[in-house]
Design a protein that fits this description.
By secondary structure, this protein is of the alpha+beta class. The protein contains 24 helices and 18 strands. α6 packs across α21 and α10 packs antiparallel against α16. The longest helix is centred in the middle third of the chain and has 44 residues.
Length: 784
């Protein structure tokens, strides 16, 4: 038997399992915990593991209460696989694999196997799902439990074979138990119960297709114990006099409504944990509003953000169309997904308003809606070019937003109050644009022309006057449309793999101090100590056997590194400028041994043979060996500065001599003389300091043309003015965006100055060029 034949024999469920395993499990322990977010969970899980009970997430009241399942799984993984990343993440990752398989199982039962497989691929390509599946910042048990409850209830309510199976109901109950233990009763129990009840009510008049009539009769007989005439509607068949069907649905409805009411009445007590809510309510005004969940869905499920809106809306079209009202199980299934997603949004909003933060829990419903939409589109029963254009446009809008602000990918995962600075060395904007473009074109061409390509929709009549190139172009577009949907799915899957195995480890290098402490372990010998300064996380023991000395102030950092033997210090990179000033004032040499992270640095007081100083300030800050001499001319109050012929190893295109506040002199600048839109003006400014300037000031960079909008490049200096010292040359580089749509062509004048932000007063120009408004004219840029 050939390899290809063996591949063809792999069932769709097997492909879903292979996809889930390859996406989530490889390299699970190879990247560090994110500090402080993931590291805080790891610390708590380690404490639970070492306690007397794995089922007590508070560890005897030491930590805030929460549903027990997540921390139980994290602690169990540490106990089995060791106190490292693999152990902590393993069972959350397994829950992610289970969620993908549960979505396939739900899709195959509610619709068909291809729809289930497409839904599994859609779920696995959502960034917010991947980040949760491979980290401790995870709601994966809740996502998996809701997927099981959704699929179990749906398959039980309208089974494909017409025969109800109690195991489907048992799966739904198991899913709700998992949901209760991982997310509380409001989301884990009330959500699936309310969604099923509302679907039965909304889909009361749905009629089975002719091919489903026999199955529907068998279904109703199985539930009610009596025959039901052919043509009985879905809702009426469920609620005929049989005790089992009526009692079961009544119990589900009462459970959902009861949990909701009791939660709203009894669980909203500030500071007191409730398993009904699954969290601790907060006092005061809510920090977030419902639109945060919209933003979370929009960014978190890219590149399906635009498609999911129309996928969820499909049942509204069917129910409003008399010809499609008898849509059978397809209409029921799509209506069920819409209502499930709607209730998930509503209940998650309630949870967020009460507790402060929430992730959208019903990712399975969104994935299934996408899966059945793509499955229908592959049938090519109709041509939908307008719908394809709308989806393509929405997809590119989100891709553009990611290109401009890639940190949104992380913010929807870490919640809105996360303060994450995107690492400047990670440039992935063009990946988002490329994925968005391929998915957009694939969906548009597939929806517009696949029906014609496979012969189910009549070819478009170009008329007798059409030219040869027009006919060839039409043929090419139709042929592209044959594979457009498949190309979109492949691009999305590859994007998911990129997020999982490339971008997540890259981000972890910057958001975890694991690489820095590994460098310490490599460099340190014997009893050489390491301290930490302004590092939030307390889980350094995950990466170092040595206890880190907590250093509370800059002065003590200086004294710690002044010791005669070699010492090390782990610090936040944002503190380097202040520490650099302190070291220079104390006349103490220091070195940066590891600057690979944009958030953390490893400092030392000695540099051994073969080691390199990676201090990032060295390329932009140069200190004169002899301090400049500053004097004031008698009678004129003019300041004269003698730099003793010292100059940095830099050159610049535009020379100037403009002094601000008798403290800082702008000596030069670099920027392009001309630029084609869209693009970026790379602006570099060169300053030298002869007195300590005021702190907290920003640089404003205006590119003006009379009568047209200003191109603005205002920014905080690469090295804050608080720490500028006499004798330093400062090189500041900033990219100014020049968009095509809002920037008219013309000759723009570059104007530079300092201001504190808002309506604050600018630094005065005390010598040199001044346009009369404390701005320096540096020249012009021709923008074409």
């Amino acid at each position: 038997m050939s390899f290809l034949v063996k591949l063809r024999r792999v069932p769709p469920a097997g492909w879903a399992a292979i996809f889930a395993g390859l996406l989530i499990l490889p390299g699970l322990g190879s990247f560090g915990f994110w500090d402080p977010w993931e590291l805080g969970v790891a610390d708590q899980a380690r404490a639970v593991m070492r306690s007397s009970s794995l089922f007590d997430p508070t560890v005897g009241g030491k930590f805030s209460p929460q549903p027990p399942l997540n921390l139980f799984l994290d602690a169990l993984g540490m106990k089995v696989f060791g106190v490292r990343e693999l152990g902590a993440r393993f069972f959350d990752a397994l829950a992610g694999v289970g969620a993908i398989l549960a979505v396939y199982w739900a899709g195959a039962g509610l619709f068909r196997r291809r729809a289930g497989l497409l839904a599994a691929l859609a779920l696995g390509s959502m960034p917010i799902f991947i980040l949760q599946a491979r980290q401790l910042l995870s709601d994966m048990p809740l996502v998996c439990g809701l997927a099981l409850a959704l699929g179990g209830f749906g398959r039980f309510a309208w089974p494909a074979t017409g025969q109800r199976r109690m195991r489907d109901l048992a799966v739904a109950v198991a899913g709700m138990v998992i949901g209760l233990l991982s997310g509380g009763a409001l989301i884990g129990v009330a959500l699936p119960c309310l969604a099923l009840t509302a679907t039965i009510v909304a889909g009361w008049g749905l009629q089975p297709h002719a091919a489903e009539t026999e199955g529907a009769a068998v279904l109703t007989t199985a539930v009610t114990g009596r025959d039901v005439p052919e043509g009985t509607s879905f809702g009426r068949g469920l609620l005929t006099k049989g005790v089992h069907g009526r009692g079961l649905l009544l119990a589900v409805a009462l459970l959902g409504v009861g949990v909701l009411i009791v939660t709203l009445l009894r669980a909203n007590v500030a500071g007191r944990y409730s398993i009904l809510l699954g969290g601790v309510p907060r006092a005061g005004t809510p920090a977030q509003m419902f639109e945060y969940l919209i933003k979370q869905i929009g960014f978190g499920i890219f590149p399906w953000s635009a498609l999911v809106v129309f996928a969820l809306g499909r049942p509204l079209i069917r129910l409003g169309n008399a010809e499609e009202r008898d849509g059978g199980r397809l209409a029921f299934g799509q209506l069920y997904l819409l209502i499930f997603a709607a209730f998930a949004f509503a209940l998650a909003t309630i949870y967020m308003l009460m507790t402060g933060d929430a992730r959208f829990p019903a990712l399975a419903a969104l994935a299934l809606a996408i899966g059945i939409f793509l499955d229908e589109a592959l049938e090519g029963e109709r041509s939908e070019p307008v719908l394809g254009l709308l989806i393509a446009t929405g997809t590119m809008i989100v891709a553009r937003d990611f290109f401009l602000t890639p940190e949104e990918l992380v913010s929807v995962h870490l919640f809105q109050n996360a303060k994450v600075k995107w690492p400047p060395t990670i440039t992935v904007g063009y990946v988002f644009l490329a994925v968005g473009l391929v998915v957009s074109l694939g969906l548009y061409t597939g929806l517009a022309t696949r029906g014609r390509a496979i012969g189910k929709v009549a070819p478009r009549d170009l008329g007798t006057g059409a030219r040869r190139w027009q006919r060839r172009l039409e043929t090419l577009v139709v042929e592209v449309g044959r594979w457009g949907l498949q190309a979109a799915v492949i691009a999305a899957v590859l994007f998911g793999a990129f997020i999982s195995h490339a971008l997540l480890p890259m981000l972890s290098r910057h958001l975890s101090f694991k690489p820095v402490l590994e460098s310490y372990a490599r460099y340190a010998k014997g009893d050489e100590e390491i301290g930490k300064y302004r590092v939030e996380g307390h889980g350094t023991g995950f990466y170092s056997e040595r206890e880190l000395v907590d250093i509370p102030s800059q002065e003590q950092v200086v004294e710690f590194l002044r010791r005669p033997k070699r010492t090390f210090c782990l610090t936040a990179s944002d503190e380097l400028a202040a520490l650099d000033a302190s070291f220079k004032l104390a006349k103490l040499d220091y070195y940066v041994l590891d600057a690979s992270s944009s958030r953390f640095l490893l400092l030392s007081n000695q540099l051994k043979s073969g080691e390199q100083d990676q201090n990032p300030l060295k390329k932009d800050v140069w200190m004169a060996s002899t301090p400049p001499e500053v004097s004031t001319q008698p009678g004129s109050n003019e300041t004269k500065v003698d730099w003793h012929g010292q100059a940095p190893p830099w050159t610049w295109r535009v020379s100037t001599s403009t002094t601000f506040e008798n403290a800082v002199e702008l000596v030069g600048a670099d920027f392009p003389a001309e630029l084609r839109r869209p693009g970026k003006i790379l602006l570099t400014l060169y300053f030298r300091v002869f007195r300590r300037p005021p702190g907290g000031f920003k640089i404003f960079a205006h590119f003006d043309i009379p009568g047209e909008p200003r191109v603005i490049g205002d920014h905080t200096p690469i090295f804050p003015t608080n720490y500028w010292l006499p004798g330093e040359y400062i090189r500041d580089t900033y990219e100014v965006d020049v968009p095509l749509m809002t920037t008219p062509a013309g000759t723009y004048t570059a104007l530079i100055g300092f201001w504190p932000g808002g309506e604050g007063k600018r630094w005065r120009i005390t010598a040199g060029r001044n346009d009369g408004d404390d701005r320096v004219r540096l020249g012009t840029v021709e923008i074409r």
